[in-house]
Amino acid sequence: MTIPKEVRETIKALNDAGFEAYAVGGCVRDFILGREPYDWDITTNAKPEEIGKLFKKSVYENEFGTVAINTESADPKLKIIEITTYRVEEKYTDKRHPDSVKFTKKLEDDLSRRDFTVNAMALEIQNSKFKIQNDNSKFKIVDPFGGQDDIKNKIIRTVGNPDERFNEDALRLMRAARFAVQLGFNIEEKTAEAIRKNSGDLVAISKERIRDEFSKIIMTERAKTGIEMLCDFDLLKHIMPELEEGWGVGQNKHHIYTIWEHNIRSLDWAATHGYKLENRVASLLHDVGKPRTKKGDGPDSTFYNHEVVGAKMAAKILERLKFPKKFIEKVVLLVRYHLFYYNVEEVTENSVRRLVRNVGPENMDDLLEVRIADRKGSGVPKAEPYKLRHLRAVIEKVSHDPISVKMLKINGDILMKELKIGPGHKIGYMLNILLDEVLDEPKKNTLEHLMARAGELNKRPTAELEKMYKIAQTKTREVAEEEFRSIKKKYYVS
């Protein structure tokens, strides 16, 4: 690892003006670990107004002594560097923000307010006053709280009293777990005890901040361990209590794991195979509806419609955590349709075509990823057996067939022109009725056939067309599922 030119030049400018300046926090931790820092922060005894005079392209719009300077670097991670004046913080009445901030002259005072020892170190570039060099031998680490030893021993430990640190900002309860899984560290015993003791304080934190920390945990390779930590520390019940409903709940003779174990094992596959965030969340939540739909016990228990219940639960969970609307819609879709059954000899192209219509061709790869995570979370040996590989080929084939109104060889303009009718609901009803027929028989997607059929439909009252349209919509949603349902019953799949 080398210290970036932009960081060295910024520190040199402060030193040349007579101020102390150090790289500080997570970037120092990552530098020691040989990891590329996400960003670089600098701390100094210069006051914000003094920093602003040194760096013309700077912004200071907060109460915490942090000035953002524009280095004009081509590297997005280095274009903006934050410089913060040494400070100490007063009480945290709301467990989120300090009641007040006071500037101090001592670096150690500033480091003492930080969360964990591995984040409470500063990097001094000793030659920065004289000449800009890229010589990493000429630096020293200021480490008053044993952060280097904790890095060596792979430990997450609070700076000072853990109760005080967590009472200052309750989000640190989750951050401890996040750093542990990101770095592959363990949480020191007293720190862990304090997390459990103060877990209820998480309710004081905004859902947006909780969402962001949760997402960071999910996006690590050790996401499964992260979820287990959140559960063990009594934090998960304040984030996603629905997941814990599966704890100790057995399944049927087709499953060797409890619902809880199955869900987090599915996440583990998704996390260790580079899935994107929405697919990881969908893998974690795909069976969240099972505990509420379980009927019976032992090897013959069932979970009928758990995908429907689970989709509704996933929507409420993600809405509560303030995830974006499009993200929620995507995860809900994947949870809702994850339980498709496919057997080469028994499932028709028609049902696959309707599945693609329901899910959308752009979401099929994601749906298959979630299905694979589901399989691996069940302990099966093969992630993608012949049946799923064959399904990919069928999906590719039917995706060229009309599965949306836009893919019909006819459109609203043609209907209005040829039938001499104006715009309105009737046009939409007819197009969707025609699509339903074409979904069953793609060969009917010709201008001649559709126009003749449209002429027949045009003779019917709008109210009757509306009823036919609603039936078509219901059929589009349910016909494939009905076929899958009958096969699942035959093979006892639930």
Reconstruct the topology from this structure:
Blueprint: H1 5-16, E1 21-24, H2 26-33, E2 41-44, H3 48-54, E3 58-59, E4 66-70, H4 76-79, E5 80-85, E6 87-89, E7 101-103, H5 107-112, E8 122-125, E9 139-142, H6 147-152, E10 155-156, H7 162-168, H8 172-183, E11 186-187, H9 189-198, H10 207-218, H11 223-232, H12 241-244, H13 259-272, H14 277-285, H15 290-293, H16 306-320, H17 325-337, H18 349-359, H19 364-377, H20 386-398, H21 412-419, H22 425-440, H23 447-458, H24 462-491
Parallel strand pairs: 2-5, 10-11
Antiparallel strand pairs: 1-2, 1-8, 3-4, 4-5, 6-7, 8-9
Helix pairs in contact: 7-9, 8-10, 8-11, 11-13, 13-14, 13-19, 14-17, 14-19, 16-17, 18-20, 18-24, 22-23, 22-24
Describe the structure.
Its cofactor is Mg(2+). This is PolyA polymerase. It comes from Candidatus Giovannonibacteria bacterium GW2011_GWA2_45_21. With 494 residues, the protein is α+β, with helices and mostly antiparallel strands. It folds into four domains: 5-149, Beta Polymerase, domain 2; 155-239, Hydrophobic Seed Protein; 266-400, no CATH class; 405-479, no CATH class. The chain has helices at residues 5-16, 26-33, 48-54, 76-79, 107-112, 147-152, 162-168, 172-183, 189-198, 207-218, 223-232, 241-244, 259-272, 277-285, 290-293, 306-320, 325-337, 349-359, 364-377, 386-398, 412-419, 425-440, 447-458, 462-491; strands at residues 21-24, 41-44, 58-59, 66-70, 80-85, 87-89, 101-103, 122-125, 139-142, 155-156, 186-187. The strands form three sheets. Strands 3-4-5-2-1-8-9 form a seven-stranded mixed β-sheet. A two-stranded antiparallel ribbon has the order 6-7. A hairpin with a 6-residue loop joins strand 3 and strand 4 (66-70). The chain is elongated and about 85 Å long. Residues 128-136 and 483-494 have low confidence and may be disordered.
